Amino acid sequence: TTREPSNLDSSATIESMEDNPDEGCHIYRYGSYSDGISVVEGILGVNIIQMMNVQMTESQAENSLVDFVVTCQGSLPTDVCTVVSDPTCQVSKSVVCDPITIRDECLLTIRRAFEEPGTYCINITLRDDTSQALASALISVNGGEST
């Protein structure tokens, strides 16, 4: 079978298909093809370099606040998502995504609240239009203290 695509110059491109029951279907294409490729660096990696408990007044003591200091390499992210899960990282308890603006160096602090003491799996994802990178950590929150 021979067919000519309607959107291309018929003299330049001919596509031929052969159906052979013993060897399967083969497609042969003749002509010139071109396309443009854009290479982007993307976000190459994310690191949680510090987790700090945020000191609160007694009236705020119902939630434990933790600041996560995060760095990244490569292009600068435009969004950050934090997934808080059980200690096995299987059951998600909350997901929070926020847009961010980073101008020079990829160093940011992410503050998250924990309603009750316990051990949690934290996944922090930084992303932009073309890439994303993830860092994970286990955190133990114990009524105002975190490790």
UniProtKB/TrEMBL annotation:
GO BP terms in the entry: cell adhesion
Source superkingdom: Eukaryota
Pfam families: PKAT_KLD
Sequence segments annotated as region (Disordered): 1-20
InterPro entries with a match to the protein in the record: PKAT (IPR045219), PKAT_KLD (IPR046846)
Example of a GO MF term: integrin binding
Biased composition (Polar residues): 1-14
CC annotations in GO: plasma membrane
Domain PKAT KLD, chain residue ranges per copy: 71-121
Matches recorded under PANTHER family: MELANOCYTE PROTEIN PMEL 17-RELATED, TRANSMEMBRANE GLYCOPROTEIN NMB
Protein name: QNR71 protein
